[in-house]
Amino acid sequence: MMRLFLNSLAASAGGGLTYIRNVLPHLAERTDLQVTVALSPNLRQEFRGLVGIDFLEMASFTARRFWQEQSQLPGLIRDRKSDILLSTGNFALRKSPVPQILLSRNSIYCSQDYYSDLLARREWSLWLETRLRAHFAKRSVKWAAVTVAPSAAFADDLSRWTHMPVLAIHHGFDREEFFRDPTPLQPEVEDELSRANSALRLLFVSHYNYYRNFETLIRALPFIRESLKPRPVKLFLTCKLAPGANPGAYDPQSAANMVKEIGVADMVVELGAIPYHKLHHLYQWCHIYATPAYAETFAHPLVEAMSSGLPVVASDIPVHREICGDAAVYFERFSPEALCKCVVEVAESPATAERMSDSGRHRSQDFSWKSHVDELIELARSLMTVGV
Fold first, then answer.
1. Quick one: which of 43, 27, 48, 37 has its CA closest to 7?
2. What digits encode the pLDDT tens for the residues 218-235?
3. Which CATH class is domain 179-364?
4. What 3-state class would DSSP assign to 81?
């Protein structure tokens, strides 16, 4: 029986949290594994129903997490006689006592667009901090026995950046689990949706950050309104454009100011965070999923949207094309006019929308968390066999 140690201390929001939410249940079902998971204490309650996993709660301080992991985890891995370390948070142990698989899923470290964006925003401290983190992320690829990326496009980016081989294993999607919970959305959210009953409803699922490029989506709204008038248009966001309302150090004030300055406050609905198990209701309420992100590694909401039957309008980056194929239409990532053209194309052609919807449902079936876990375990066993 293989003993697997998961370092999930970095899972707090976004893709990291989505990852462990979906992977841990599949690991718990495996009878050929003994699994230990290091995670933050505030997440332990969420996994209280999982049996067969040893949860190791560790208070994790963001500013010191890297050094904390380097100093504490090797001893804990030895104590549990683990065979394989799975590092899920972009950074590897420099001297892992066992073969280590690094899951790298942060595209900003090798994104020139992101660094240029930070400089344009005069985010000097964040630019310097990201450069420092990027240094250790790059070194981590060299420290790990194998580095795994969630898409072939991002694996290619990582390989060019680090000059090291990187394996691509797609992240997954469990349709039955995603749509399982019948609990309705919060009453205030349903009220907002009901008030937009006659509008074209656009959706973007993300907490606020810079690389998701909210500003291009916001700048596209006046063009969309003009093109589709008199039909009203609403953009639903699963975040609040207010300081302190989102995880991370990103300041949404520029986006909030833009909403007011270009006169689209009546078009933007800031729902705030929606519980993951209720998200399927929100997708099914909306007409088009739109993402202007300029950097991505996989983009889980794209698969969720496709499975929900939403046509996708996405920025033209390799990851989006890999995940969506012909279930999406694509626009130049910093062009609000091109974004508008794509939205209007879908909104005004029911045949196009239906074709994309059917294609998306079919495409979403290609992603499976069970298959993802099976491939990871197979990789882990191969590392044990060769004694890496």
1. 37
2. 999 999 999 999 999 999
3. alpha beta
4. coil
Distance of CA 173 to the CA centre of its chain: 12
Domain residue spans of the chain: 2-172+368-386, 179-364
pLDDT above 80 (res 325): yes
Task: Please give the sequence-ordered ranges of beta strands (E in DSSP) within the chain, or none if there are none.
Answer: 2-7, 33-39, 53-57, 84-87, 100-103, 146-149, 167-168, 200-204, 233-237, 268-270, 288-291, 312-315, 328-331
Residue 15 pLDDT more than 90? Answer: no
How far apart are alpha carbons 81 and 1 in whole angstroms? 12
- Is 310 in contact with 321 (CB distance < 8 Å)? no
The total of other beta-carbon atoms located within 10 Å of residue 277's CB is: 15
Instruction: Work out the pLDDT band at 42, boundaries 50, 70, 90.
Output: confident
Q: What is the mean pLDDT of residues 275-304?
A: 96
pTM of the complete model beyond 0.85? yes
The residue-averaged pLDDT of 60-71 equals: 71
Sole residue written with tokens 């990851």: 319
C-alpha pair distances (Å), 157 with each of 82, 151, 303? 31, 10, 21
Q: How far apart are the C-alpha atoms of 276 and 180, rounded to whole Å? A: 11
Candidates 259, 263, 260, 309; CA nearest to 284 is 309
CATH of domain 2-172+368-386: 3.40.50.2000
Q: Regarding predicted confidence, which is higher, 26 or 385?
A: 26
Amino acid, single-letter form, for residue 138: K
Confidence at residue 386, expressed as pLDDT on a 0 to 100 scale: 64
Same CATH fold, 179-364 and 2-172+368-386?
yes
Residue 352 neighbours by CB distance under 10 Å: 14
Q: Is residue 388 scored above 60 in pLDDT?
A: no
